[in-house]
């Protein structure tokens, strides 16, 4: 897939800690909401360099816990301690901005402290020109301010700003737009960029991949893998948790339990833990029954004294905290999709199908055939027309060109990611909405709703007050009852907790029909889809395999492209010689290539990359040479900045002006070197 290679966000080097350093500690936290106990003597410790993934059922209090760390919520009891000087960055699910600001201006607010320092330096530079006898005091203050400015990122701020915005998928075409004109997803991206720009010591991320496409998610992963601070993130993205997490903490019934490793490791440990607990419970229950039987048989006989002793020990055990409890399985949905009719072998046929907007083609499909039983995932960058493709397939939008033909005996079920009130009646109860005009008995309806965790009072809730996850379960219940043999799904795992996602994946694996699904959930794609349509605008690549196979193949192709590019830069003459040898083996009557004219005396040969106006100025340097030049330039920039405070420069306006110009030139050079260096890395 031809996703753009996005720049890495520049980060200054930080101190490498040899010993564990706690960034935040929560000790014996208690919190109640109304009559509900949210946290019961909860403990948590996060150390510098850790990436901790927090999981747990919806409503367990994960977001509340992050707000407690930021001091947005008070606790009823316990201690919340942040290490001295720790800077915290918190990404909420509902960021707040000044809608009148442009995107670039709003992002620059993350550099507020840096801009204040820059203005202070300018003021002090002007004071130096008229300081007179007070020059030494002004110089001392300037040196302190300059030191703080360098620690805060110095002149690299613009590079950091642009890299962050591009990385999260906000291209230059958005930078001058008013924040108020952005979609909810774009605002979430802007909030993420601002937090990453600020480079806190502790990152608190609440569902950071919501509204990000695959390219932006992968960029974020790579950034966080190199982040030197601590990360505590809530996410339903299991692929992300597998790649990033060094530890998983599971929040259940008011307490956190920690599991070393990533999400897959957590699942294995939890499964073994539950199996061990189940065996211990069964063994203890068998022993209790054995003791009861002994007491019953010998309570009044010769062994009555022994029986009474056993009875006392048993009673002490039954009221003690040594009792092994039964495994408390997390309540989850129970899905079983069945079909009433068998579809034909040919489910869908597409020929020369195209769609675009405003004169730009979104996608153009040459030829695709879908057979019965196939499981197809559609992926691509945001704005590439994935949902539009589903709507064209369903006939809700017309195609610009081409034909599509559905097969015979099809019952198509559609899951719309929006789950909006245009699909549901907000005044209906859950019972009424699911029933609709379906010919069901009340028992059939109740059974289906019970399998989707709508029982008792939950079944008579108004649809208008349901959460996104609850509305998703209402739509899934309708699909269960409709018994489709073709499922067209648009982001089905949005709004679902991990347990429901896993239940849905298992259901789709067992589903006998055909699936066409848009998703950015890579874990879901890997477990539910065996074929991919990859939109690389305007092309559509038909890939026979799972997401992890495509990602591996794409990464290998990208690595080979980089190796080829490096080899060409390192040995352009060798390439030319190789082409020359190849030419010499061609027929003799082929025209010979005329040699290039010699360069004029005293002039360097022209750089072939100058033919390309977008060529990078440092493209011929090796990675080691780039690293050396970055270091040298940083040192030169620091020395130039420090020279501002020397009497010889500060007292001479012309020299001070030249020094400022030199600093600006060095900062520009540093930015170019860093861009070239990180383009090699990515």
How do you describe this structure in short?
The protein is of the alpha/beta class. Helices cover 44% and strands 18% of the residues.
Show the helix and strand layout:
Layout (H helix, E strand, L loop, with lengths): L21 E12 L2 E12 L3 E5 L6 H8 L7 E6 L5 E4 L11 H6 L3 H18 L5 H17 L5 H11 L16 H15 L3 E5 L7 H12 L4 E5 L3 H7 L2 E6 L2 E6 L2 H36 L5 H16 L26 E12 L2 E12 L3 E5 L6 H9 L6 E6 L5 E4 L14 H6 L6 H10 L16 H15 L3 E5 L7 H13 L3 E5 L3 H7 L2 E6 L2 E5 L3 H24 L1 H13 L38 H21 L3 H4 L2 H29 L1
Parallel strand pairs: 3-7, 3-8, 5-6, 6-7, 12-16, 12-17, 14-15, 15-16
Antiparallel strand pairs: 1-2, 1-4, 8-9, 10-11, 10-13, 17-18
Helix pairs in contact: 3-4, 5-6, 9-10, 19-21
Helix/strand-derived category reads alpha/beta
Q: How many helices?
A: 21
Summarize the main sheet. Answer: 6 strands, mixed
| Total number of distinct structural domains | 4
Shape annotation:
globular
* CATH-defined topology of the largest domain: Rossmann fold
What is the CATH superfamily classification of the largest domain? P-loop containing nucleotide triphosphate hydrolases
Can you name the CATH architecture of the largest domain? 3-Layer(aba) Sandwich
CATH class of the largest domain: Alpha Beta
Beta content comes to 15-25%
User: Span between N and C termini?
Assistant: 15 Å
Q: What's the Cα radius of gyration?
A: 32 Å
């Amino acid at each position: 897939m031809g996703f753009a290679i996005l720049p890495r966000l520049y980060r200054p080097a930080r101190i490498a800690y040899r010993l564990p350093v706690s960034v935040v500690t929560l000790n014996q936290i208690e919190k109640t909401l109304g009559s509900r106990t949210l946290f019961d003597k909860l403990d948590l410790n996060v150390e510098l360099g850790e990436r901790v993934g927090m999981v747990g059922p919806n409503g367990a209090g994960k977001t509340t816990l992050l707000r407690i760390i930021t001091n947005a919520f008070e606790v009823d009891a316990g201690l919340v301690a942040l290490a001295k000087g720790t800077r915290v960055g918190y990404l909420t699910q509902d960021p707040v901005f000044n809608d009148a600001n442009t995107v670039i201006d709003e992002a620059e607010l993350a550099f507020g402290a840096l801009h204040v320092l820059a203005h202070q330096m300018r003021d002090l530079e002007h004071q130096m020109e008229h300081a007179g006898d007070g020059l030494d005091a002004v110089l001392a203050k300037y040196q302190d301010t300059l030191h703080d400015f360098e620690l805060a990122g110095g002149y690299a701020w613009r590079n950091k700003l642009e890299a962050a915005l591009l990385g999260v998928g906000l291209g230059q075409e958005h930078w001058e737009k008013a924040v108020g004109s952005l979609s909810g997803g774009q605002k979430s991206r802007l909030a993420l960029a601002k937090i990453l720009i600020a480079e806190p010591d502790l990152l608190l991320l609440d569902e950071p991949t919501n509204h990000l496409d695959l390219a932006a998610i992968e960029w974020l992963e790579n950034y966080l893998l190199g982040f030197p601070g601590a990360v505590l993130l809530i996410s339903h993205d299991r692929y992300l948790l597998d790649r990033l997490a060094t530890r998983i903490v599971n929040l259940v019934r008011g307490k956190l339990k920690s599991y070393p490793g990533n999400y897959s490791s957590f699942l294995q440990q939890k499964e073994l833990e539950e199996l061990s607990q189940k065996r211990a419970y069964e063994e203890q229950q068998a022993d209790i029954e054995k003791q009861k039987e002994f007491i019953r048989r010998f309570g009044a006989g010769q062994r009555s004294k022994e029986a009474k002793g056993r009875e006392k020990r048993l009673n002490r055990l039954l009221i003690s905290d040594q009792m092994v409890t039964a495994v408390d399985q997390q309540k989850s949905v129970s899905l079983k999709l069945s079909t009433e009719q068998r579809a034909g072998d040919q489910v869908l046929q597409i020929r020369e199908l195209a769609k675009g907007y405003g004169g730009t083609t979104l996608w153009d499909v040459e030829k695709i055939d879908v057979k019965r039983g196939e499981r197809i995932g559609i992926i691509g960058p945001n704005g590439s027309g994935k949902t539009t493709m589903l709507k064209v397939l369903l006939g809700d939008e017309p195609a610009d060109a081409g034909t599509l033909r559905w097969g015979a005996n099809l019952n198509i079920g559609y899951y719309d990611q929006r789950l909006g009130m245009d699909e549901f009646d907000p005044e209906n109860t859950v019972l009424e909405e699911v029933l609709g005009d379906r010919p069901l008995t009340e028992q059939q309806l109740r059974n289906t709703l019970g399998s989707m965790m709508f029982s008792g009072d939950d079944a008579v809730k108004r649809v208008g007050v349901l959460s996104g996850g609850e509305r998703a379960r209402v739509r899934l219940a309708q699909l269960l009852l409709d018994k489709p043999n073709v499922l067209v799904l648009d982001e089905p795992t949005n709004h679902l907790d991990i347990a429901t996602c896993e239940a849905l994946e298992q259901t789709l694996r067992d589903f006998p029909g055909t699936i066409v699904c848009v998703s950015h959930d890579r874990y879901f794609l890997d477990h539910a889809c065996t074929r991919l349509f990859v939109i690389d605008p305007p092309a559509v690549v038909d890939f026979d395999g799972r997401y992890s196979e495509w990602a591996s193949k794409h990464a290998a192709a990208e690595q080979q492209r980089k190796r080829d590019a490096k080899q060409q830069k390192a040995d352009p003459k060798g390439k030319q010689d190789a082409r020359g040898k190849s030419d010499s083996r061609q027929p003799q009557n082929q025209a010979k290539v005329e040699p290039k004219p010699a360069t004029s005396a005293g002039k360097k040969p022209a750089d072939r990359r100058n033919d390309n106006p977008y060529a990078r100025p440092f493209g011929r340097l090796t990675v080691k040479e780039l690293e050396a030049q970055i270091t040298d330039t940083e040192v030169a920039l620091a020395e130039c900045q420090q020279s501002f405070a020397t009497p010889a420069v500060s007292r001479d306006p012309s020299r001070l002006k030249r020094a400022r110009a030199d600093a600006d030139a060095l900062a520009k050079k540093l930015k170019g070197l860093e861009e070239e260096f990180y383009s090699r890395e990515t």
